[in-house]
Amino acid sequence: MREARRLALLRHQSLIAEVARKQALRGLAEALEAEARGQALAERSARLVAASAARAGVTTGAALGQRAGFTAGLAQLAANAADSARDAARQREWQAESLTRAETRAKRLAEMSAEARTALTAAQDRREAARTVPMARKLQRPGQD
Length: 145
Fold this sequence. Notes:
The chain is an all-alpha fold. The protein contains 2 helices and no strands.
C-alpha cells in the first residue's frame, strides 16, 4: 500500500528531523555559552589591565618592566577573548538559523505526515467499501430487484 509506505517514510524523516532540531538547539546553547564566557573574560581582563596601570610613586625599572609585561599579556588576553566572543556570536547566529531550518522542516514533515495519515485512512475506507459492495450484490438473488 503506497500510502502506508509514504507514512512510514515520513515518520522516519520526522525522527531524523527531530534529531537535527535537537542538535541545532544544543549547538545554539553551546554557542551562547561560549559567547558569554568570551565576553566575561574580555571584560575581566580589561578591568585587570586598567587596575594594573602604573601608580604614582617610586618604582624600580625591573618592577616597571614586569608590570608592563603583565599588562601587555592581559591586554592580549582581553583581545583574544573579545575575538573569541565575536566568533561565538557568529556561531550563535549560524546555529539559530540552523535551528530555524530544522524546526521548519520538522513542522513541514508533521503536516505531510498528517496528510499521509488522512490519505491512508481514505484509501483504507475505499478498499473496505470496495469489498462490501460485491458482497452485497452476491447476497441478492436474481429477480429480487
